[in-house]
Each structure stands twice: as structure tokens, then as C-alpha cells.
Specification:
- The protein has helices spanning 27-40, 43-54, 63-74, 79-104, 114-147, 155-162, 165-192, 199-227.
- By secondary structure, the protein is mostly helical.
- α1 (27-40) packs across α7 (165-192) and α7 runs antiparallel to α8 (199-227).
- It is globular and about 50 Å long.
């Protein structure tokens, strides 16, 4: 994973906003900043938490440890409120506004450096696919369990889903797309919020984000394979 190129221009944040006559910040600029932030907190944190819980399937305890962790999460007070306010609504906002940004944007792959434009394109494509993947995943597990109280998320339920080849392929693609979108999103967030200023800082950030992306990709895919007994690594 490479998230930037050495020729990327550093654009001042203020230059990206078109100020009105009264020098107020346009609504779309505020929404873009909120969209960028929501991709890290809480959506990105939820991704890390989700992959961490799933990775328990790749431990020596496997099914027992995973089911115990799910039981703890299911027993949290005000779980529905937490999920709606801090997971579902942020994901819905980030996904829907992301689709809007994608449809409004235009990319000329010849106008800028090769890496800059193609990373932009890949970020948008993975964003669209990730949104679809997350909706399908939530429907199959969390929303389904809300509709049917007798249906509980468990190791065996996940295993039944992933035992179907095309479902496993879809989930692997979904995890990889989600992780790439998140890792590259961290890089974009650091640039747009003025955290990494200058080519050197942005290159260092690119390598760090690439490392995060590779690590989370392995953890996520290894967890999926663990549910069907094909984990690459089983941790103690």
C-alpha cells in the first residue's frame, strides 16, 4: 500500500474553502471536515474494535473466546442507543455523504501526478464498496438479530455464512476495501487537518498508514479464515 507520491502538492486548508462575502465558512466545507473526522472517530475506531473481536476466532480458544466476547458486548447497558448514536448514524452519514462527494467529484488523471489521482480514485471506489459491504453485514447480523430476538450472533452463525465460497470472497474483499479506505483516510485526514505539513511529513505518514493497513488487513483476513478452520496463524 502506498498512499502518496513525492510530487504531491501541499495545499493550504484555507485555500480549499470558498468564503462568502461575510467571510463565513460554507456548509459544504464544514460537512467535508465532519466527514473526514467521522471516518476516523467513530467509524474507524469501530472498524478496529470489530476486527479485534473477530480476531479472537484465530486464538487457541477460538469459538469459546469469541462467543464470550460477543456475550460481553451484548450485555452492555444501553447497547441499542450506543449502536444507533455512535455506530449506525455515523456510518450512515459517512457513507451517504461519501457517495455525494463521489458523484460531485471529477478526476482528470492527466492533470496531476499519477499517484495522486489514482489514490483518489481507489479511495472513492473502495468507499462505495465498503458502504455496500457494511450495509449487507449489518443486515445479516445486527439488524437480523434485532428483528428476530431468537437469533444471536455466534461463532457458529458466522461460520455458517462464511462456509459459502462466494460469501467468503465477498467478506475478504469487504475487509480489504474497508481497511484500505480507513488507512488511506488517515493519511488524507492528517493532510486536510494540517497535521502533516510538507512532503517529508506526508511521506512518513504514508509509510505509517501503509503499515497500519497491512497489519489490519492480515488480522481481518486471518480472522475470517479462522471461522472456517483455515487461519494462517493461530495465536495463543
Amino acid at each position: 500500500m502506498v498512499f502518496s507520491d513525492t510530487k504531491r502538492e501541499v495545499i493550504p486548508i484555507a485555500a480549499t474553502a470558498e468564503h462568502t462575502a461575510t467571510d463565513t465558512v460554507p456548509v459544504h466545507f464544514k460537512l467535508r471536515k465532519l466527514h473526514s473526522l467521522s471516518g476516523i472517530i467513530p467509524v474507524g475506531l469501530f472498524l478496529i474494535e470489530h476486527l479485534s473481536v473477530n480476531s479472537l476466532a484465530a486464538t487457541a480458544g477460538g469459538e469459546r473466546v469469541f462467543n464470550a466476547a460477543v456475550g460481553v458486548l451484548r450485555g452492555l447497558p444501553y447497547l441499542i442507543v450506543i449502536e444507533i448514536l455512535f455506530i449506525m448514524i455515523p456510518i450512515l452519514f459517512h457513507g451517504v455523504y461519501g457517495v455525494f462527494v463521489t458523484t460531485e467529484a471529477s478526476v482528470n488523471t492527466g492533470a496531476y501526478s499519477y499517484g495522486r489521482n489514482w489514490m483518489y480514485v481507489i479511495q472513492r471506489v473502495t468507499g462505495l464498496f465498503t458502504f455496500i459491504f457494511v450495509v449487507v453485514h449489518l443486515w445479516n447480523f445486527r439488524i437480523a438479530s434485532m428483528i428476530n430476538p431468537d437469533l444471536h450472533v455466534s461463532f457458529d452463525l458466522v461460520r455458517q455464512h462464511l462456509a459459502v465460497t462466494w460469501v467468503m470472497v465477498f467478506y475478504i474483499a469487504g475487509v480489504l476495501a474497508s481497511v484500505f479506505h480507513f488507512a488511506n483516510g488517515i493519511w488524507n485526514f492528517c493532510v486536510s487537518w494540517g497535521i502533516t505539513i510538507g512532503p517529508r511529513a506526508q511521506r512518513a505518514s504514508a509509510w505509517a498508514c501503509a503499515a497500519v493497513g497491512l497489519a489490519l488487513s492480515f488480522i481481518g483476513v486471518n480472522a475470517l479464515l479462522a471461522f472456517v478452520g483455515k487461519a494462517l496463524i493461530i495465536s495463543i
